[in-house]
Amino acid sequence: MTTLKRIAANDRPLVAAITLLFVSLCLGGGGSTHRLAELLIEMTAILVTALTFAWPLPARTPRLWQVPLVLLSLWAVLVLAQLVPLQPSLWRALPGRELASAIADQIGTGSAAHPLTFDPSATRRALAALLPAGSMLLVVLHMDQFQRSTLALTAIGCAFASLILGLFQLVTAGHVGTLYQEGHLGYATGLFANRNHQASFLLIAAALACGFVAKRHAAAIPVLLVIATLLAGALATRSRAALLLFPLALLPLVQGRLRLQSRIVLPAILASIAGSCVLLQTNQVAQITVDRLWNGNMGRLLFWKDSYAAILRYWPAGTGFGTFATVFRVSEPLEHVGQHYVNHAHNELLEIMLEGGLPALVLLAAGFCWWAAKAPVFWRASAPSPHLGAAAWTGLLLLMLHSLVDYPARMLPIEVMAAMLVGFMLPPASHAVASDLSGTLQSKGKKGRASFGVPYAKAARNALDDRGAQ
Asked: Which of 104, 30, 96, 113 shows the shortest CA–CA distance to 323?
């Protein structure tokens, strides 16, 4: 294989990741009610995963890669374990199975084996939903730093497209550009059915864009305009979470190497704060969002109270992933029953504790500790080019905080984005590629072209260092 072909072959992970990102964003914004769309995304993830296993990993695989891969694998094993049929005596001994046992006795299946989950089909769908995240994580691990930056720019571009679509939806009261009629009709939902998920997507994209400001001072002003536009789009969704979280999206701007006394960044931050204050005072959309924040429906407090009561009933075994809606309807007090269907707890911590029990909580805590332990790596001043890592760390922070009041990570597009961010926090795969390529070129220089072969090899190595430096 020639050198140019080898370089081109290295871009295959980038193409695969962009394809998976596009498919998930175009088809997955409607949520789990769109089964065919989810199936197509999962099939794309299977194809990408199959191709990924056909590509060799770098010769030196960092041990840091093992942590998120092991946690994701253990999560899949936990979901599979919930589908394993249990002996009747063991199943009846699980907490909260009294009503289910009585029903099984009435219909004549009391002596049969039953799985831990209350809804095996829903749990199987939850297992399949892990495929896109696992596929994106694997393919990002094959990328060098330049490819990761390109993928991040692609995600920012997709966010802009979703923002523009949301503007059409907002201006036309939902008559133009609305993809999901069952969603928040008339709001700026973009590629999603739910405005909160659009806001989460735009906030993550803004955090990624901040990483490019920190890396390239020369392009700071244009990128700051992009960031301001994305944040304005997030506020245009009228999401209360967006109003509270959008300042955190600017965290990568103050990353270690970018000093606050910079002639560009400090005025930009002050201007952003001043502009936000003016916007909140004068803009009707912003005022509506503030009014919703202070005087809006607080029904989620009841969701959380009833969810916690259900957790105590089924703890520590859980009810099975994907079973929240079924279990909540059984556990919800009659005085709290309203006209609207409660599909999620609007708090991922509570929902995971209910569905996965103590094992899921342990895995979740392990993942959080890994994420928190990575903070010093990206935020210290001596870190080598940590800008994309700091932006990814911030994006996950935004997603975790938003998940305390909603369920954005359960949308496959945002799940794929989250896996991409986790991959960005891991070492890139460029070093082995650079050494392999430069070694090949140097060997060619020794075969009669030593006069310019070695300098060409050094130039190629320097170019790859520019692509893969971290």
From this structure: 96
Same domain (yes/no): 387, 453 = no
> Among 396, 412, 428, which residue terminates a domain?
428
Does any domain span residue 460?
A: yes
Q: How many CA atoms does the CB half-sphere of 301 hold within 13 Å?
A: 3
Kind and range of the H or E element at 114?
strand 114-115
Q: Are residues 150 and 191 in the same domain?
A: yes
Tokens of residue 292, six digits: 């919703």
Query: Is the peptide bond preceding residue 408 cis, with omega within 30 degrees of 0?
Result: no
Please tell me the pTM assigned to this model: 0.82
Are 404 and 435 part of one and the same domain?
no
The two tokens of residue 425 are 């926090």
CB 58 within 8 A of CB 433: yes
> What is the mean pLDDT, run by run of 10 residues, along the chain of 470 residues?
51 92 95 91 94 67 74 96 94 90 87 92 95 95 90 96 93 85 82 93 94 66 86 88 88 62 52 54 49 55 87 94 90 72 87 96 95 82 67 95 93 96 86 39 40 36 42
Instruction: Give the list of residues 6+ apart from residue 376 with CB closer than 8 angstroms, or none.
Output: none
Which residues constitute the domain of residue 446? Answer: 431-468
Return the closest-CA partner of residue 302 out of 280, 324, 335. 335
- Assess if residue 93 is contained within a domain: no
